[in-house]
Write a structure and sequence with these properties.
Blueprint (H helix, E strand, L loop, with lengths): L2 H17 L2 E4 L9 E5 L6 H9 L5 E6 L8 H7 L3 E3 L6 H12 L3 E4 L17 H9 L3 E6 L9 E5 L13 H14 L6
Parallel strand pairs: 1-7, 2-5, 2-6, 3-4, 3-5
Antiparallel strand pairs: 6-7
Helix pairs in contact: 1-2, 5-6
């Protein structure tokens, strides 16, 4: 357990719930042990919101683009919080190794399959990293939908879906499985139900 992570989650929870009030559905869907939490990504607030929703007892190791670690203060903070830097322009073996260790230790790994923030009008092919890790290391993926339209003092939705168990996939199956994951996440949007 990362004490700084727990402290900041507890400290920020009242502020986030006041300024960014959310409606939560599906909290009971979070499994015990190692799992990959996958959410759509549209705002810099998304990682904070997810940490608050899952709470200090469900410590998550976030994967974050390496550029964030180069920003003064923010870089130091996310490193102390245990985030894993990812060089998106290469096959980042160190990030992969650290991610595998997180899952083997029975912890939660949080990543955004889109690989970047995406507005409602944009379409981005999902990266295959989440389904690769889940398939190879036999851990479930927990899909999470976060409303893209998050404005201060306006309620928005967060939906946690049932865990997805992929089983062993072949390399050729990864792109389709990744797209299916993003479709499952998008299908939880209450505005489309």
């Amino acid at each position: 357990m990362n004490r700084l992570y727990s402290f900041l989650v507890i400290l920020l929870t009242p502020f986030v719930r006041l300024v960014y009030p959310y409606r939560l559905k599906g909290r009971a869907a979070l499994p015990d042990g190692g799992a990959i939490i996958c959410a759509n990504h549209s705002s810099n607030m998304d990682p904070v919101i997810l940490a608050i929703i899952f709470g200090p007892r469900n410590y998550m190791t976030f994967m974050a683009k390496i550029e964030l670690f180069r920003i003064p203060v923010l870089g130091w903070l996310i490193k102390k919080l245990g985030a894993i830097p990812v060089d998106r322009g290469s096959s980042d073996i160190e990030a992969l190794r650290r991610s595998i260790n997180v899952l083997k230790e029975g912890h939660k790994l949080m990543l955004f399959p889109e690989g970047t923030r995406v507005s409602e009008d944009d379409a981005v092919a999902a990266k295959t990293g989440a389904v690769r890790l889940a398939s190879r290391h036999n851990v479930p993926i927990v899909p999470v939908f976060i409303s893209r339209d998050k404005r201060p003092f306006r309620r928005y939705d967060v939906c946690i879906g049932e865990p997805i168990v992929l089983g062993k996939l072949k390399h050729a199956d990864y792109p389709a499985a990744s797209e299916h994951l993003m479709e499952r996440i998008a299908a939880m949007n209450p505005e489309k139900l």
